[in-house]
Design brief:
mainly alpha, two-stranded antiparallel sheet
Length: 298
């Protein structure tokens, strides 16, 4: 038997209480969202209080405005993330049961949809307040990776979004559905890549440290759009790489079109849905970085 890591026995709920026959629970995934948003808010406020980091020594918005921006960002994350999941990942199911779209407590959020939701929300807010949107996106880029890290750790604790079967020493024996369908090479215990941890390290720790370094030490906040572009390209690259180790969503193992018809030519041309959605992010992010560097040389 190859070496592996047993899945830690951690409840998906941080705590639960019963009041008048109703049970209220705080789940790790909800806590990750709350912690990520609150820490991101404080990071953006801290950046706005350091005008020397910004172009012409002037922050793009007052620290007091960040709280209003947070409300818009939360709406963008929730509405965009849910809409993206419905459209990109499981549209046939939700066409059959539209009311399930509103059952957020059952899970189902897509980063790419949430990202687009935040873009729309920030643009609308900045236009209403006459604030330079590109500089605001740069601040959000610095503040976002830690939230992604918490979210991926919560995915691991929940035993969801696991990786492909693996015999590596750090492979994890996930419970439930992950313990099945590994094939004849796994006669007793099915072990898989802890792809959630890979994503936490790449999207959260590595990308986050790089963005902080460039913001605080290399003056990238003085070039509107540059850090935002790097974040978009960096996330897309990290997600594209990790998808090689992540188990495809069940509905893409036998891929279907939006009406539930089986696609015969293979899973999205050989790429997962996450990779297909990440490629435009990589191209767009690199184009923005190139544009800001070219503009700085003129």
């Amino acid at each position: 038997m190859h070496g592996y890591i047993p899945f830690p026995d951690i409840s998906p709920e941080v705590f639960s209480v019963s009041i008048a026959g109703y049970t209220f629970a705080l789940r790790w995934y909800a806590l990750a969202y709350i912690t990520g948003l609150l820490l991101g808010w404080r990071i953006v406020v801290a950046l706005m209080k350091r005008p020397r980091l910004w172009r012409e020594g002037q922050a793009p918005m007052a620290p007091q405005q960040v709280e209003d921006l947070l409300t818009w960002v939360i709406l963008g994350v929730v509405l965009g993330g849910r809409t993206g999941y419905v459209l990109f990942y499981d549209l046939p199911y939700y066409l059959k049961d539209p009311l399930s779209i509103f059952k957020l407590w059952q899970g189902g959020m897509a980063f790419h949809g949430g990202f687009l939701g935040v873009v729309v929300a920030v643009v609308l807010y900045c236009r209403s307040q006459k604030i330079p949107a590109l500089s605001v996106f740069d601040a959000l880029a610095v503040a976002t990776p830690q939230g992604l890290m918490f979210g991926r750790f919560a995915n691991f604790i929940n035993g969801e979004l696991w990786g492909r079967p693996s015999h590596l020493p750090w492979a994890v024996a996930f419970p439930g559905a992950a313990a099945q369908d590994c094939g004849p090479d796994w006669l007793t215990i099915c072990t898989r890549h802890p792809s959630q941890i890979y994503e936490a390290l790449m999207e959260g720790v590595i990308l986050g440290l790089l963005l902080v370094y460039l913001a605080l030490r290399r003056g990238w906040l003085r070039h509107p759009g540059r850090l935002g572009g790097l974040f978009v390209a960096g996330y897309g690259t990290a997600r594209f790489i990790v998808e090689f180790f992540r188990q495809a969503d069940a509905q893409f193992i036998t891929p279907t079109d939006p009406f539930g018809n089986v696609i015969q030519f293979g899973q999205l041309g050989g790429f997962s849905m996450g990779q297909v959605l990440s490629l435009p992010m990589i191209a767009f992010g690199l184009a923005v970085v190139w544009w800001t560097m070219r503009k700085a040389r003129v």
